[in-house]
Amino acid sequence: MNDAHDISRLDLNLLVVFDALLRERSVTRAGQTLGITQSAMSHSLARLRVFFDDALFIKSYRGVTPTAKAEALAPDILAIIDSIRNRVLSQAQFDASQAKRTFSLCVTDMGELVFIPPLLSRLKEVAPHCSIHTLQVPPHNMEATLASGEADLVLGSVMNAPEGLYQQELFMHPFVTIASVKNKEIGDTLSLEQFCSMPHVAVMLAGRSLRAYDSVIEDAGIKRHIAFTTPHFLFVPLLLDQHPEFLATVPQSLGTVFARHNLVKVFEPPVALPKFSLRQYWHPRFHQDRAIVWLRGLVKETFSELPEGMR
What range(s) does the HTH lysR-type domain occupy (predicted)? Predict the structure, then answer.
């Protein structure tokens, strides 16, 4: 083979032929898979043999069998075909039913508990070969994480989101106050007096300028005794179980999940609190990316269909 490293001499369509022959082990069946005649397949195989200076596939009683060189080439050629199908072509079009892709989402631990399960269910229905990876990043790293492609979307309520990011409101989320089922001081309702006199647990997410997630309570003019702060939503019901005298004010969806496990009682806060907006954020660099456009649509659709108590 002359000038074997000159890629311009290789018709990349021949790699598709190689892939089909490797899978089907028959010139006829490979041609049927690709929608071309057996004659065209034979011609393509002849060109492959010239380029690689090897028979590649030899006749056998079952069809064709790859040579040692074909077996050696197979992993690299299959990787090339897979990359073209799932990375290059996905930029021109995105077929969710056939795509093999891992989507990365920035969410809090609350988001993982409440929103990832229904999203995984929808993904299983419409994109069975795709998967989800979650990560957490502080707000000051949010733009860089999205710009690099390390994360495809950020889901949550981000105070002071970086300028220049696209964002879309998914729904408005109310707060609820939760108490341990072991708390015997509270009956079926929670009074303002009880709310103000009992110690509270507050979630203070990293990178939020030391502002509690439920700081709207103080904004409403209510003074409370915050006995403990944590950056972890999922620790709250466990702490309330160990210290039943504590209260916590959390997003409604989280309170619903905790109550479902018979850990807490859920109350409407005894003071009017504004709802907060849960949004998805993405970087302009990937605004037209077909796969990310599809993902944003799936997220919006999934969250729109969540029951009222979950959003």
Answer: 10-67
